[in-house]
Amino acid sequence: MSASPVQPSFDPESPVFRAHEGGKLGVHATQPLRDRGDLSLLYTPGVAEVSLAIAADPTLAARYTSRGRTVAVVSDGTAVLGLGDIGPLGAMPVMEGKAVLFKHFGGVDAVPVVMESGSVDELVEAIARIAPTYGGINLEDISAPRCFEIEERLVERLDIPVFHDDQHGTAIVVLAGLHNAVRVLDRRLEDLRVVVAGAGAAGVAVTRLLQRAGVRDVVVCDSRGIVSASRRDLAGHKARLAMSTNPRALTGSLADALDGADCYIGVSGGTVPEEQVATMAPGGIVFALANPTPEVHPDVAHRHAAVVATGRSDFPNQINNVLAFPGIFRGALDAGATRITEAMKLAAARAIADMVPEPTAERIVPSVFDDGVADAVASAVRALAPTLARSVPGGAAW
Fold first, then answer.
1. What's residue 292's pLDDT?
2. Is 98 a catalytic residue?
3. Packing angle between helix 325-335 and helix 373-384, nearest 10 degrees?
């Protein structure tokens, strides 16, 4: 395991450590256990009737167990945002926090499932074997490029939604922000020249979703420069990106890509020099999403761009995955969806954007605390959810 890039500190009396003491999750019962009568209903002998009914008709599990409203938050701790490869125990507080967000914003029960890292085959098999307990799988903080194949194989193998939030949650909220940024600027997505800095999980998903939304000119950059068909050092997922991006066949560095660009989307970390940002087209868009230090500081970005967003909560226009994943899973579970489709992702992005009916340069996405965001996303997802034939009408019992 590689060392964390962040210097650890430990102060058990600090507010942070005190807030996490004992963990952030517990278990509560949804039915009272007051006497022998309750015990006979909730456990033996009454439980046997329910178990036999589910064994005969597995679709009943959505109604008569917690499966239909519970998501597994699965990670091996190999790519924790801002921390790197910190392993399963180090990742556990992050996964607990994710579960809290699921419950608070979407009303979805979520359980952290952290496991020792392994090969793609090992992780796929382990996750598939625990899937009967859950109505959905949220993959989290699994390193690229393994995360792509793990998700693809689980989507094909399982009949429940599988969603890698580092990829698709980021992409959905970026697209939502971009929908409103172009409204503010009286532009069209189709006409933008977009630079995506970062060819990992988030960068790939952002690029793909923007293309599906109509963006035609996307140039992706990794640590070695522009991802182009002329490069011979590209990993498989980057080679596939090169086939569908960079329509002007640019070569060179990020600086070359930014020259004349309308939009910069940073999902890679590092720092972009101000002189490179200054070469972008006037009246542009900068989404610098690295945390805690954006690739372009907002003060710098505002000197050269008309609309600026970050991943931080202390600046306007926070591109925060919390706007997406609670509602996406709520809608998918409500509908008994078998998977989360590209159409559902596009609809979720539009629903988030529509929560700001009159966008301004300082407000292109709603706050995570705005009422109705998760409900709007859930409604959009539910309307497009592909489902299995179900013997229980109405989807999951909430």
1. 85
2. yes
3. 40
Asked if omega into 359 is within 30° of 0 (cis), the reply is no
Burial of 175 (0-12, 13-18, 19+ CB in 10 A): buried
Confirm if 120 and 153 have CB atoms less than 8 A apart: yes
- How many C-beta neighbours within 10 Å does residue 155 have? 17
Calpha distance 395→398 (Å, rounded): 9
Q: Is 43 a residue of the active site?
A: yes
Tokens 């019992």 sit on residue: 397
Name the strand (E) or helix (H) holding 244.
helix 236-244
Of 312, 272, 306, 270, which is closest to residue 289 (Cα–Cα)?
312
> What pLDDT sits at residue 385?
84
Residue 149 pLDDT > 90: yes
- How far is the first Cα of the chain from the last one, in angstroms, to the nearest whole number? 41
Looking at residue 131, which CATH number applies to its domain?
Answer: 3.40.50.10380
Q: Which of 64, 98, 103, 238 is catalytic?
A: 98
Q: How many CB atoms lie within 10 A of CB 99?
A: 21
Question: For residues 70 and 259, what is the distance between their CA atoms, to the nearest angstrom?
Answer: 47
SS3 (DSSP) at 163:
strand
Q: Is residue 132 in a domain?
A: yes
- 57 burial type by CB count under 10 A (0-12 exposed, 13-18 middle, 19+ buried): exposed
| C-alpha pair distances (Å), 1 with each of 9, 10, 124, 210 | 19, 21, 20, 34
Q: Out of 24, 43, 103, 345, pick the active-site residue.
A: 43
Nearest to 215 by CA among 189, 239, 240: 189
Domain ranges, residue 124: 57-160
Q: Are strands 217-222 and 136-139 parallel, antiparallel or unpaired?
A: unpaired
Distance CA 140, CA 162 (A): 11
Q: Looking at the 3D structure of the chain, how many domains does it have?
A: 1
**Residue 196 domain-assigned (yes or no):** no
Three-state SS string across 319-364, please?
CCHHHCHHHHHHHHHHHCECCCCHHHHHHHHHHHHHCCCCCECCEC
Q: Is residue 375 part of a domain?
A: no
Model confidence pLDDT, tens digit, residues 301-326: 999 999 999 999 999 999 999 999 99
Q: Is residue 273 part of a domain?
A: no
